[in-house]
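In this supplementary section we document a worked example of the pipeline. Step one takes a protein sequence of length 84 as its only input; no multiple sequence alignment statistics are reported here. Step two produces a three-dimensional model, which step three serialises into structure tokens for compact storage. The input and output of this example are shown verbatim.
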Amino acid sequence: MTQRVPVIERILGANDRLAADNRARLDAAGVFSLNFLASPGAGKTSLVEQTVSRLAGRLRLAVIDGGGKTESSGKKKPGGGKAA
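The serialised model returned by step three reads:
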């Protein structure tokens, strides 16, 4: 039998508040941002590399790598490893 349990407090409430603050600050600065979340090996780094290579010179770009290091991701530097 399935039973519904009411959620009294969001477990990630503090994270949600920080994310909302980040979005507000980026919006106020006129910054368009993307956040890629996926399992290791899903192709996030390749997607970022292709996007940067195709848009470089046309837009101001920056890449922030906030993820953990896996064996495959540690070998690549999105954006060519240049400072943002």
